[in-house]
């Protein structure tokens, strides 16, 4: 169904933008669930003292809520404006981008739990690279969304769509790069299991470490879901808002809304406090880091032996006579107590 408005009927490219009404039921359901997940993420951040991760997740969820508010306005109001469409477009595009950033930050601490021997890259530049990826994506997607809907110039609209496509392509590339780094780390763990067992780390056999592995699989699932969503969103926008794929509401709700929702649920179920805090405390991490070093026996402290006698020596000049010989030492020696069973040194000479 075409959404027609007085403000939009004369705009160039507007008929391509407002070609159908979003699903009212689907928008309400997803809006409610995303809103419910915000206080849950906040509570987990307070509980596990993971404020940065929780803040990023909450920001992504808030953008999703704004996006579905825009879609709800498009669904209930026949006099919808471009502002509603921009709100829905920007919110549903930027939300998963920010949520992916929260997942990107989890890989370095996961690698740190295994030790430096399992690093396939330098984790010092990990966060900086993915922060840069996210910043470029956000700028391109915001500028592209505004240019694709606000101007009345057809050329500006096409430029905006290209910027949107570029932002989504960079976002997809960052997810694939992150997945590649995670795959390399998984292969390193699989190939170097002898190091883990050689260190005799009993923590690998505990229930807490098994929970840690399950949580890591949850993060992998979240990355996979966000990858599917990014691929889907790239196709309809590259084909234009009037393409059949872009007008398929069921396809959007499943491959965009549901994929992002399941990814967030998997991320919250694998919260870093459980994954790196309660599951593996810092003491255990330090134990595992230093366990790879070979143990060296500590040197024993020197024992001071108490002599059975206290010899008394007379001072003698360093410049002794040439006739001096240790066999004929003229310096007298006095003993506090006579020694028995001693070997005669004169007899040995």
From TrEMBL:
Transmembrane ranges, per UniProt, are 24-45, 52-73, 85-107, 128-148, 168-190, 211-232, 252-271
UniProt feature, compositional bias: Polar residues: 318-343
Q: Which keywords annotate this record?
A: Membrane, Transmembrane, Transmembrane helix
Regarding the membrane, this protein is recorded as: Multi-pass membrane protein
Q: Which InterPro entries match?
A: RTA1
User: Would I find Oxidoreductase among this entry's keywords?
Assistant: no
Q: Which domain of life is it from?
A: Eukaryota
Where is the stretch described as Disordered? 318-349
Concerning Pfam families, the annotation shows: RTA1
Q: Where is it localised? A: Membrane
The UniProt entry, under PANTHER family, shows: PROTEIN RTA1-RELATED, SPHINGOID LONG-CHAIN BASE TRANSPORTER RSB1
Q: What is this protein's record name?
A: Phospholipid-translocating ATPase
Origin organism of this chain? Answer: Apiospora hydei
